[in-house]
Amino acid sequence: xxxxxxxxxxxxxxxxxxxxxxxxxxxxxxxxxxxxxxxxxxxxxxxxxxxxxxxxxxxxxxxxxxxxxxxxxxxxxxxxxxxxxxxxxxxxxxxxxxxxxxxxxxxxxxxxxxxxxxxxxxxxxxxxxxxxxxxxxxxxxxxxxxxxxxxxxxxxxxxxxxxxxxxxxxxxxxxxxxxxxxxxxxxxxxxxxxxxxxxxxxxxxxxxxxxxxxxxxxxxxxxxxxxxxxxxxxxxxxxxxxxxxxxxxxxxxxxxxxxxxxxxxxxxxxxxxxxxxxxxxxxx
Amino acid sequence: xxxxxxxxxxxxxxxxxxxxxxxxxxxxxxxxxxxxxxxxxxxxxxxxxxxxxxxxxxxxxxxxxxxxxxxxxxxxxxxxxxxxxxxxxxxxxxxxxxxxxxxxxxxxxxxxxxxxxxxxxxxxxxxxxxxxxxxxxxxxxxxxxxxxxxxxxxxxxxxxxxxxxxxxxxxxxxxxxxxxxxxxxxxxxxxxxxxxxxxxxxxxxxxxxxxxxxxxxxxxxxxxxxxxxxxxxxxxxxxxxxxxxxxxxxxxxxxxxxxxxxxxxxxxxxxxxxxxxxxxxxxxxxxxxxxxxxxxxxxxxxxxx
Lengths: 284, 305
Hints:
The complex is a heterodimer.
Chain A: E1 2-6, H1 14-24, E2 29-33, H2 41-45, E3 48-62, H3 72-76, E4 82-84, E5 89-91, H4 101-105, E6 111-126, E7 129-136, H5 144-151, E8 159-163, H6 170-176, E9 181-186, H7 190-206, E10 210-217, H8 223-230, E11 235-240, H9 243-250, H10 255-258, H11 261-283
Chain B: E1 2-7, H1 15-25, E2 29-33, H2 42-45, E3 48-59, E4 62-63, H3 73-77, E5 83-86, E6 91-94, H4 104-108, E7 114-115, E8 118-129, E9 132-139, H5 146-163, E10 168-172, H6 179-185, E11 190-195, H7 199-214, E12 219-224, H8 230-242, E13 246-251, H9 256-262, H10 267-270, H11 275-289, H12 291-294
Parallel strand pairs in B: 1-10, 1-11, 2-9, 2-10, 11-12, 12-13
Antiparallel strand pairs in B: 3-8, 4-7, 5-6, 8-9
């Protein structure tokens, strides 16, 4: 089973839920941190890393000996990453989406695939959890290929928990698509509610069973609860607004270690998710 | 004309609340919400929409079933695994969620059986608010090209600043360090990184710091909720000093931010004597007196291109 933890708004508690849920479940668990722009899960579960790999994507390099300056590569590139001049060809790696059009279309085989690094992936273990995360290289723009690579290691024999990035655009979709369940985390504030609505729209487009965790309950107002009721969005867990929890988080500690009563609450959350997944499966 | 871009790396550290607070203090400015994915600044500034336009950010491949000969060339050339083959019906189809809009399949289909319509990826707006003009946008759900839309709203904010002779653009940036963030910092005068004293807040602040150095744009740091963890706050101050980034102030963990947000007010409109208001005012004064902001060097070659 794949559970993706998402939110719309950043800083609502995705990583807290992901890591504490992973540590509480009595089954084999795999935690995939797919917030590759700002991965944070490792700061809380401290995995021992045993394998690293680069994520690469090709960019064009022009063999000027073979090039006839026919401009076919420039014409097929929708990103303006190639400029063919009279006696030279300029390529702009930062604009390239690695679609491969230039390699395909060149009649002279003059476009060579050069590797560029988008970021890296690390594999490890922490307290019985199998852990993988990706990290976008500073200055690179393409997060989705790294997320897809992390997800390619999904182990069907384990419960897979995905820590997704904030927002509603391509990186979030890459972290939610084909999950069995999406757990949305929000806080009961106007910003939290507004971005939750966007996240719910996204989840509905993907047509995946979902539920809600309200973090920092008691802060703000009841509008999130009213919205959830109106939209038949099940509230699966509430974590109260408590500076004690905020301090535990600030030190990189786990809530379930410092406040053991939460372990049962996270186990309960997992049971509710299992039930909803079963029900969602029947409906389809 | 100067532009201050408010960033954080980590989400939820207070970018929008602090940008809105600055809106009450800044003069001769235009506001720009560059978090087009999950824009929130309008919830406080309550804009009066004056102009709205569609954002056509790209194209999407659509296979015409009548003209397709099932040769499979599209599936072969697509590097985004967006072309799906259904063996039961012997049909090829493009998954619009996976499609990158590169058009390679469109150009290479031997039957010209693939359409490539333009897609509306979102909306963008020019508005008036009680505190000044504002440019903002909404990226369509699950749409691509957020970077292009960010570039567009910033360009429009620049135009307004020029037309109305405003000398400051206040830009609320997106979280992360990827495509939309990079689009939100090019040509900026300076970045203000809102950091929180937590292990993740520090980790993410360091990544934004690296990004600012990578693109050679000066950065300053403001520590929000500094009293949550004094040790981590000290760590931020040390790290900032080591990387030559000025700490322009510290703001308390103050629920005034949430209370004013609920009333759709800036913290100054809600309670100008609150602890947070006093501290934010100090931060703003410090920013205005920083040399990197007061006497901006044209450090970005982009401006000359």
